[in-house]
């Protein structure tokens, strides 16, 4: 059994220093713990190299700015720190988690005087879903939780507070024997899974929801580029849940899930076909070269 995440061997980059993994601490009255004032990234390491590192760091800084947080390092410094911690922990294939958060200098909704902390952890991480099940296509249920209106949340950020309904949706799905949940948006259109974007295929064309109230994933954009290079038409539009039964294939994209076929969403069935398999192969070839 893998060690808990608070007690592992190795090092974490913590406010500019390499600290032994178990010794990284933050105070119980940190603003982030009480008011979700933190932003983060998820990045994959393939053969010792972080895929799309610069894009992830750029988004981290954008998210921090949207949350009125100023990270006390440059993007170049953060990029180098990510590379350093991967090398220090001898990670060949793994996952990187940079996170910035408000400290404990103030307690209350106001947080202007809090220190902005930054940590970067990395660990070995295999496929997000069971490999055999992934090839068959994973099963999703529909979540009762919906992505909120962009007028109510900073939906274009990767901020911690936005993920609570994802956790609730994921827990409910797993209790019911599913791998994940599909979430609708505040207008009852298809939005995303709990940590991944969703794509559908019909008549050789790809359809995917417009990311107007959820994150436009870096992997999402990468896969769209791959599809277009193959000459596949990609249509970004509003998708009603009742349309899902008209699609033949479905897959998820994300840093963790990569390109993962879906076999079922509630009552709708899908069969992973040539387009999905080609995109899976193209994506793996891209990240590993």
Based on the model shown, name its key terms:
289 residues; alpha+beta; D-amino Acid Aminotransferase, Chain A, domain 1; D-amino Acid Aminotransferase, Chain A, domain 2; 2 domains; 9-stranded mixed beta sheet; 27% helix
How are the SSEs placed, and which strands pair?
Layout lengths: L10 E4 L2 E4 L10 H5 L2 E3 L2 E4 L2 E2 L2 H14 L8 H14 L5 E9 L13 E9 L6 H6 L1 E10 L16 H12 L4 E6 L4 E4 L3 E6 L2 E5 L8 H12 L4 E4 L11 E6 L3 E8 L2 E2 L4 H14 L2
Parallel strand pairs: 8-9, 8-15, 12-13
Antiparallel strand pairs: 1-2, 1-7, 3-6, 4-5, 4-6, 6-7, 9-10, 11-12, 11-14, 14-15, 15-16
Helix pairs in contact: 2-3
What does this structure look like?
With 289 residues, the chain is α+β, with helices and mostly antiparallel strands. It folds into 2 domains: 11-124, Aminotransferase class 4, branched-chain amino acid transferase, N-terminal domain (D-amino Acid Aminotransferase, Chain A, domain 1), CATH 3.30.470.10; 131-287, D-amino Acid Aminotransferase, subunit A, domain 2 (D-amino Acid Aminotransferase, Chain A, domain 2). It contains 7 helices and 16 strands. The protein has helices at residues 31-35, 53-66, 75-88, 131-136, 164-175, 218-229, 274-287, and strands at residues 11-14, 17-20, 38-40, 43-46, 49-50, 94-102, 116-124, 138-147, 180-185, 190-193, 197-202, 205-209, 234-237, 249-254, 258-265, 268-269. Strands 8, 9, 10, 11, 12, 13, 14, 15 and 16 form a 9-stranded mixed beta sheet that branches. The longest helix is centred in the first third of the chain and has 14 residues, at 53-66. It is globular, with a radius of gyration of 19 Å. The model has no long low-confidence stretch (mean pLDDT 95).
């Amino acid at each position: 059994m893998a060690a808990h995440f608070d007690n592992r061997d190795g090092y974490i980059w913590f406010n500019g220093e390499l600290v032994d993994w178990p010794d990284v601490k933050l105070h119980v009255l940190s603003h982030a713990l009480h008011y979700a004032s933190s932003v983060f990234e998820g990045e994959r390491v393939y053969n010792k190299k972080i895929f799309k590192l610069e894009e992830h760091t750029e988004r981290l800084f954008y998210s921090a700015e949207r949350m009125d947080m100023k990270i006390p390092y440059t993007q170049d410094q953060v990029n180098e720190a990510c590379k350093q911690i991967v090398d220090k922990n001898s990670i060949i294939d793994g996952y990187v988690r940079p996170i910035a958060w408000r400290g404990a200098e103030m307690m209350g909704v106001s947080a202007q005087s809090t220190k902005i902390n930054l940590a970067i952890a990395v660990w070995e991480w295999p496929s997000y879903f069971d490999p055999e099940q992934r090839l068959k296509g994973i099963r999703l249920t529909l979540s009762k939780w919906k992505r909120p209106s962009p007028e109510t949340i900073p939906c274009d950020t990767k901020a911690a507070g936005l993920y609570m309904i994802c956790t609730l949706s994921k827990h409910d799905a797993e209790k019911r024997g599913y791998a994940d949940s599909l979430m609708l948006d505040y207008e009852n259109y298809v939005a995303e899974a709990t940590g991944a974007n969703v794509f559908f295929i019909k008549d050789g064309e790809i359809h995917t929801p417009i990311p107007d109230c959820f994150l436009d994933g870096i992997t999402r954009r990468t896969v769209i580029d791959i599809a277009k290079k193959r000459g596949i038409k990609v249509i970004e539009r509003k998708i009603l849940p009742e349309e899902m039964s008209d699609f033949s294939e479905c897959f998820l994209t994300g840093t963790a899930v990569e390109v993962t076929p879906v076999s079922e969403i509630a009552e709708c069935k899908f069969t992973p076909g040539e387009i999905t398999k080609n995109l899976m192969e193209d994506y793996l070839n891209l990240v590993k070269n």
